[in-house]
Amino acid sequence: GQNIDQPTEMTATEGAIVQINCTYQTSGFNGLFWYQQHAGEAPTFLSYNVLDGLEEKGRFSSFLSRSKGYSYLLLKELQMKDSASYLCAAQTGANNLFFGTGTRLTVIP
Amino acid sequence: NAGVTQTPKFQVLKTGQSMTLQCAQDMNHEYMSWYRQDPGMGLRLIHYSVGAGITDQGEVPNGYNVSRSTTEDFPLRLLSAAPSQTSVYFCASGGSRSTGELFFGEGSRLTVL
Fold it and tell me: Which residues of B touch A99 (CB under 8 A)?
């Protein structure tokens, strides 16, 4: 079967750093995506990891360990606008994505 | 650049009615897909297409039909709506040769009474 686990909710303070973890078990794994979704809106692409290691993009970084089935998304210098759901998704074939249930992040002043 | 356009944005149906959710993309993407999003369930793949004339089932295909006659359009048909199909539906297309990133439409909120 296929499974992705990520925390349901997290709270962090404005200006701080937060790490959102994701573990996955899927068949035909090609790579790992992170998407951001604000309430009532469509998901938007944040990052993609296909090789082990860290990918950095501005305030956002994503890490992948294929041997451990583990990824994390690191958000630095948190801003109020970062309050959103963060979706971990495994690419399993063609461009198909298998999504976790998402982590709702609340940034407080 | 319009990207991925879905219509309608909101729809209320009665049980047993049929309807079609429209999806169009102007990025010349070969891959298109439909997901549904329910509270606590995450996004689940319904059907997908890797090119005109080619469609396949995803994780939750029952009760839905699709066709892909052109590269641009990928409609999702509900043949006989059921309350269990109350959900938010997202169409997505992709084609970036480097990442396979998906671009999502704004979503269609469907309520079946």
Answer: 35, 42-44
What tokens appear for A22 in the block?
A: 């994701």
CA distance B1 to A97: 24
- Chain A to chain B Cβ contacts (< 8 Å): 56
Per-residue pLDDT of chain B (113 residues; tens, 9 = 90+): 679 999 999 999 999 999 999 999 999 999 999 999 998 888 999 999 999 999 999 999 999 999 999 999 999 999 999 999 999 999 999 975 556 789 999 999 999 99
List, as one string, the DSSP characters of B18-55: -EEEEEEESS--SEEEEEEEETTTEEEEEEEEEETTEE
Nearest to A42 among B33, B40, B105 (CB): B105
- Which residues, including other chains, have CB under 8 Å from residue A69's CB and lie 6 or more apart? A23, A24, A25
Chain A residues lying within 8 Å of B41, measured CB to CB:
101
Closest CA to A90 of A36, A6, A30: A30
- Show the DSSP H helices in chain A as ranges: none
Beta strand pairing call for B108-112 and B87-94: antiparallel
**Residues A42, B90: C-beta atoms closer than 8 Å:** yes
Q: Which residues of A touch B25 (CB under 8 A)?
A: none
Question: Could you give the CA distance from residue B87 to residue B43 in angstroms, rounded to a whole number?
Answer: 10
